[in-house]
Each structure stands twice: as C-alpha cells, then as structure tokens.
Amino acid sequence: MATRATHAHVRDLAVNLTLRELKGKYKRSVLGWSWSLLNPLATALIFTMVFKIFFAAATPLGEPSGLQNFPLFLLCGLLPWNYLANGLNGATESLVANGNLIKKVYFPREVLVVANVASWMVPLLIEFSVLSVLLLVFGNFVLPWLPLVLLLILVQTGFVLGIGLILGAVNVYFRDVKHLIGILLQALFYATPIVYSLSQVPEQASLFGLEVPVRSLYRLNPMVPMVEAFRDVLYDLRFPPLGDLLYVLGWGLACMAVGLLVFSRLEPRLAEEL
C-alpha cells in the first residue's frame, strides 16, 4: 500500500510540475499558445524563402502520395527536430532552475526533467494536429497514419528524456553544459535531413585522398531515421523501413537506460552542488 501511495504521489507531482511548466511557458505573452504554432511556421517560411528562392532547391516528390510541397516537407522534419532541441535545452536547465525546491524538500529529482520534457510534448501534439490538417487540405489523407505518428513521438520522447536526464544532472556539476549543447544542436541540425532530403547526401566522398562512406556514417545519427520515419508517414504516406524503426527504438531504450543510470549516480549530491 505504501508503494502504491508513493507512486501516486510521484505521478501527481509530475502532473503538477508539468502544468506549472505549461502555464509559465507563455506567461505574460499577448499571443500565448499561438507562439507554439507561429514559431515553426515562421521558421518554415524563412527556410522556404532561402532554399527555394536563393538556392533553387528541388521539392522532393512524396512516394507514393504524390505530394510536392516544400513547406510541408520541411515541417514534417522540423517539428520532431524542435521537440528534440526544446526538450534537451529545457531538460538541461530544469534542475538548476529549480535549485531552491531541490534544497528545501526531498522528492525524486528526475520528476523535474520528466515534467519539462512533457511540457514540450503538448505543443508538439498541437503542431502535429495543425500540420495534419494542412496535409489533408493539400490532398494527403494522413488520418490512418496518425497512430503511428503517436508511436514515433513516444519513441522520440524516450530518446529526449534519456539524454535530458544526463544533461540535467551533469549541468548541475558543470554549468558549461548548457552552452555546449547549443553548439552541438546547431551542428546536429545540419547533419539531419530537415531542410534537404536524404537523397542529396552522397554515398561516398573523397577526404584526404580516402574514400569515405558518407551516407553510411551519416545514417548513424539517430535523428536521421527518426526524421525520415516522420516524413515517410506524413509526407509519403508509407510505412517506414522496419530497420529504421528498430534502430530508433533501440536508441530510445538505450538512452533511457543510460540516462536513469547516470542520473541515479549523480543525484545524491545535487542539493549540495546547487
């Protein structure tokens, strides 16, 4: 009975902290939650202008959907990327931002990271709902594929949460982490097929006189099959390759396991370090 009560208290705490994060996200903002839609739409518009007008980038053709729309192609990759970036940035700062609470009372500290990541999932679901409506307007019947989208979001959440647990705990000990993560995310953005298609990545390239299997190395980045899976489902209207799904699922489970292990090792001295 005591264990159940403890689990119930932790669950209630996680829900309350998530609601607090959601309320504070756009506090004193005139447009409020509209920013969760305006930000990705504005980003998509900017990238569309740059890559379509200045660089004359080709718009990928959805197979078998037949859809050929660069902003929608971009949004299918941009939304999961924003979830990764926002979730990791928020998780990194979650423990330091709640230092006073951690020092005053004991509770499972990982709940703070969970609540922060969960607070970014809500706008993601809203954004995907709007994107689904846009895709329907342009002739992509995505409704039968939405359960798979939810599954992909769940898998990505495990990936984000696992890394977030590590970053949040390490950031308490080394405050440089929050600055480093910004640089790494910027590099990772361009190493992920968001503003371009995977087909544009060369199979091989010559580097210092050696032939390097660029695409094979490129695909080791777990965000590559993750973004491609979202595009397969929403833009192409096809089932992602099973190998890609197993790869991202493996990354999600591994990140959660390692994240919980690292967090449990660093948690005892968090209050002292803060």
Notes on the protein architecture:
The protein has helices spanning 2-25, 35-54, 70-97, 99-104, 110-137, 146-173, 177-190, 214-218, 223-236, 242-266, 270-273, and strands spanning 205-207, 210-212. The chain is an all-alpha fold and 274 residues long. The chain has one domain. It is globular. α3 runs antiparallel to α5 (110-137), α3 (70-97) crosses α9 (223-236) and α6 packs parallel to α10. The chain has a two-stranded antiparallel sheet.
Summarize the structure.
The chain has 274 residues and is mainly alpha-helical.
Protein topology:
Layout: H1 2-25, H2 35-54, H3 70-97, H4 99-104, H5 110-137, H6 146-173, H7 177-190, E1 205-207, E2 210-212, H8 214-218, H9 223-236, H10 242-266, H11 270-273
Antiparallel strand pairs: 1-2
Shape, per Cα inertia axes: globular
Reading the helices and strands in chain order gives HHHHHHHEEHHHH
The count of strands amounts to 2
β-sheet strand percentage? under 5%
Class from helix and strand fractions: mainly alpha
How do the strands line up in the largest sheet?
Answer: 1-2
The total of helices stands at 11
Q: What count of structural domains?
A: 1
State the major sheet.
Answer: 2 strands, antiparallel
Overall pLDDT score: 85
Radius of gyration: 20 Å
- Low-confidence runs (pLDDT<50, min 5 residues)? 1-5
The span between the termini is: 34 Å
Portion of residues within helices? over 70%
What's the multimeric state? single chain
